[in-house]
Specification:
Length: about 240
Amino acid sequence: MKQTIFSALLAATAFAAQAETFPMTNLPKGWTGSIEVAGCAEGKCSGEGRVKLKINGRTYALPADFYEFDAPKARGAALLENPVTVDDFNFDGKQDISVPVGKEGPYGAITSDIYVQTAGGRLVKSDELSALTHNYMGTPETDHKRKLLIVGGKSGAAIHYTEHYRVVPGKGLQQVYQRTDTYYGCNKNNGIKVEEKAMLSSGKWRTRNRCLTEAQFEKLTQQDWAEMERRRKYRP
């Protein structure tokens, strides 16, 4: 037991001795913070670290495992882009934060812990939101206009899927949409099979299946990109 404690203390001391610390920028009003990361070399940083935050007088040290990000040229200078995502993930009007903690998602996708602000302003981990990053690929994208979380993934090279979730206060996440694109999934002209399910206001599901040519699917993809840009620009 004593040896285990001593080893842990040595590891913590070694981390602190090698860690680089960078102030964060573009944080919400009332937030200040910094990134502490174990390894930086040749202008790049990655690996285990911490996100240190002070929010309205409360302090937090959130464990992290960073994917590679650019280090500022001047030692101790602020980051040009924070390697975390600050957003209102549950659409309650308070800013939350997604912190990378590994690559255990599908196909080695980045997984994150998502912390939300309570009504009293405390930052707490949401297991339900964090689980989305383990079951899908990457941090959920927010659609603030429709109050939806958008996630996606793939199964091999041929099957790609997108799903939408609504945050229901007091009940958690509710899936309201699903789309699966299967390349060469149609017998006719080896087209792309597009299968959609959408929940109606009545709570019932509406399904729609189509076989698209490559040209038709390219047009659909362009519409998807335009919708993604709209989501990213829209912030209440």
